[in-house]
Amino acid sequence: MSENIFNNIEIPPTWYLDTSSLVKGIDNYHVDVRLSKRFCSDLKVLITELIRRETDQKKFQGDA
């Protein structure tokens, strides 16, 4: 068990994001994104479930 578990961790590649085509605002960049109806619906279900788990009188244990 003396093996260092961090020896197998690889450094992720560096990402470069070209922001030259984005419109600069007064003090920041503003980029509009559109979230799909499916994503919003799935997120609503997830948030509802997480709130239910946190507020359940019987403490949640394990996967639902």
Helical content stands at 25-40%
Shape descriptor reads: flat
- Summing up helix and strand content along with how strands pair, one would put the structural category as mainly alpha
Q: How far apart are the termini?
A: 34 Å
Q: What is the arithmetic mean of pLDDT? A: 80
**SS field, number of helical segments:** 1
Low-confidence stretches: none
> For the report, how would you describe the main beta sheet?
none
Strand content: under 5%
Can I get a quick summary?
The chain has about 60 residues and is mostly helical. The chain contains one helix and no strands.
Description:
With 64 residues, the chain is an all-alpha fold. The protein has a domain at 33-64. The protein has 1 helix and no strands. It has one helix at residues 37-55. The protein is flat. The mean pLDDT is 80.
Throw out a few tags for this protein.
30% helix, mainly alpha, 64 residues, 1 helix
Set down the secondary structure blueprint.
Layout: H1 37-55
